[in-house]
Structures are given as C-alpha cells and as structure tokens.
Amino acid sequence: MKKVVKFGGSSLANAEQFKKVKAIIEADEKRAYIVVSAPGKRNSQDHKITDLLLMSYQLSSHSLSFDEVYNLVESRYKDIKQDLNLSVDIESVLNEVKENIQKGASKDYVASRGEYMNALLLSDYLGLPMIDAAEIIKFDENGKFDYKTTEDLVGEKLKDVDKAVIPGFYGSNEHGQIVTFSRGGSDVTGSIIANGIDASLYENWTDVSGFLIADPKIEPEAKPIGLVTYKELRELSYMGAPVLHEEAIFPVRKKGISIQIRNTNDPEAEGTFIVHDDWEKIKHGTITGISGKKGFTVISVEKTLMNEEKGFIRKLISIFESNNISIEHIPSSIDSISVIVSDSQLQDKQNKIKEEIKIYCKPDSVNIYPGMALLTVVGRGMIKTKGMSAKIFTALYESGVNIRMISQGSSELNIIVGIENRDFEKAVKAIYRAFN
C-alpha cells in the first residue's frame, strides 16, 4: 500500500532541504503522494514565504507598492531553481501572481501561492506530475470543507496516478475560487489525501523528531513520545502542544490510518506514531504528555442553595454566549460555580459580564480572578490506574505550586489543573520529573 508524505516549510526552505526531501522519497518506494508547504524560514532572521505574500497583499490592498517585499519572494524561488538546475518556468508564474495581486486577487489566493509554486519546483526536481489542490480539495459556498466531494475527487483523480506532488493548505469552491485552511493547513491536506487513497501510513515530515512529553523550552530533558492516540493528541494540541495542526487528525481517524511525525533533518529517528484510539499497546501507570497555556481568568459565582434553583447554570452560560465568549471549563460545588475563560476571549468585558451576572442570576457574590494558567496531564495509561492523581498533586505540592482548580473528565484521559501564571513552568517541570 502507498504512503502519503507531507513536508513542512522548514523541510523545503531552500535547495539543500529539497535534496534531503528527494533522498527521503527515493528511500521508500511506497512514498507516493507528496504534499508540500510553502518555503519556511532558513534561519531565525529569515521570513516565511506565506508571510511575505500576505504582506504583499496587505500593501497592495492599500494601494501601496509591494515590490520590495515581493522581490524577496521572487529571489527565494529563483534561487532554488538555479541551485537545483531546474527547467520549470517559475519566473512566468511569479509574474502572474504579482499581476494578480495588483489586480486585487483574494487574500486566500495570494496566501496559497507559496504552496503552489513550491509544488511546481519540487515536481520538476522529482520528475513527478503536480496535481493542483484546487482540482481535488473542495469547499462549499460558505467556505466549509466539503468532505464527501473531496473524498470522491481524490479517489478518482489519483487512481491512475502512481506518484504525484500536491500543494497543501488550499482548495477551491464550486466557482473555482481559491479557499485556504487555517495556517498550518498543509497538515490537513496530507490527511485528506491519505484518507482518499486509503494510505497505509501518513508521514508528516517537519524539523523535529516527533512530540516530546513536555515543552523542551521548559524541560530541556524532555523525552520523545513514541506513541500517542488520536484522543490524546487532541487534548495535547488543544492545550498548546505544537507540531501538528489539530484538524489533521479527523480525515485519517475515520479509517484508522496512523500518522508518523518524522524529522527531515534526522530521517533515521523514528519520531512519534499517532494511532487509533483502540490501539492495544498502551503502557499503563504513566502519562503520555504535558501541555498547557497561560492567560485565563476565573469568574467565581456564589449563591446559597444554587443547586435548588432550576435554570441557574443555563442563565449563567447564556450571559457568556450573548457576549460571544467561549467557556473553557466550569468547575462547581454545591453553592458555587466558576467559569474559566481565555483572556483573549474576555478582553475588556469583565465589568459587563459581572454586572449581567448580578442582574440575571442574583448571586450572593461575583469575583474575578485573572492570571491563571491551565495545565493538562494526558495519558491513556492513567485510566483506572490507582495513585496517578496523588502522584501529580504531590509533585505540585512539593514544588510549592498552589492549585486553584482541578478537573478530570469521565474518560479519565486527562487531568486539568488551574494554577497561577507565575507557577506554570515550575509545575511542568515538577510533573514531568515525577513520572520520568
């Protein structure tokens, strides 16, 4: 069976990276469909091509010259072509894209051209056909991904094509207009192609050797995660773990196709396998990963005999809904309830929310506590394993971290703790070292 391989921006940033990609593809005949991102940064001072394209779009939309910015785009692609001695007429494509920007091309069209042009270069370098994602990845008139149409088109288009290069990140609607996924959407494209061809494996090549149990910026000794289930990854990604676009899980999850995160710069490293939730080889008594975010606010509401007042929670939640604020968690006790929201959602609405709660819910008190971080400890090995919670809380206690909230779902897949922003790094280190 065939594999789908996706290469991120750092994997295709320049000619030297292209050479590594070619070697990886040629090392395994099963690597048949190659999904590509736009060129990423070559160094810390460099720019991502997609950022430069969006900057060009922004300048042009204000009737300002974008020549200086677009020259950087042109030079990057021309350098790759020259260094690899390619024959594709990338100059004409660059000119066409520039003209379209000047004529008022859509933001999605402009953002997508980084992947499109990189796919042209790589297809020439590998001697493989390039299939435009606009022909097979479809969105409806509301910009929502059309799963069924896309699945049919991918199967039909690729059934007679043994190998091909496909640009990631975008597709088109019924009118042929370009529509993009959110940033990082090339991961999603790769997953869609893997689902459409019933791939044996979806390899996602980037600049790291898979996931680590904890953020290496906080815990330099963090070990790699060899195996993680779809559900675990969803939990870790939601709470801030990087590497893979979280929506990339859904297309392959439907058919139980595994994802393997690999490092283009270290192709011998095994990386991380992302497997079906029913995978049997789960190591019990341990955790899979730790992730979290800072920047949350707790809105604490107290009212005597709250539990006897029908509709109280509904009224409380409706206040946040009417103010267009998403709720992260709602821990509660018999006479109190706390609503935890992201600071980015709350913005400057604290006083408005507080007054509306007083009016509609008539509580005994409403208090707002900013400066909280949420930390999640994830692992199927935690399920029905005695002492896991005690081990986590003991580690936090011994490191001097004050716990402000505890939440555990019925699946027992994760434990979420609320702590002070200032204790976040200390808490990550303490929990990691308790289990490793």
Tell me about this structure:
- The chain is α/β, with parallel strands linked by helices.
- Helix content is 38%, strand content 20%.
- The protein has 14 helices and 14 strands.
- The chain has a seven-stranded mixed beta sheet, with helices on both faces.
- Strand 13 (403-408) and strand 14 form a beta hairpin.
- Helix 2 (49-61) packs antiparallel against helix 3 and helix 3 runs antiparallel to helix 4.
- The longest helix is centred in the N-terminal third of the chain and has 20 residues, at 107-126.
- The protein is globular.
- It starts with a strand and ends with a helix.
Write the layout of secondary structure elements.
Blueprint lengths: L2 E5 L7 H12 L4 E6 L12 H13 L5 H18 L5 H13 L4 H20 L20 H12 L5 E4 L2 E3 L5 E3 L5 H12 L3 E6 L20 E3 H9 L10 H5 L5 E5 L8 E4 L13 E14 L9 H11 L13 E7 H4 L3 H12 L3 E14 L9 H11 L4 E6 L5 E7 L3 H12 L1
Parallel strand pairs: 1-2, 1-6, 2-3, 6-8, 7-9
Antiparallel strand pairs: 4-5, 8-9, 10-11, 10-12, 12-14, 13-14
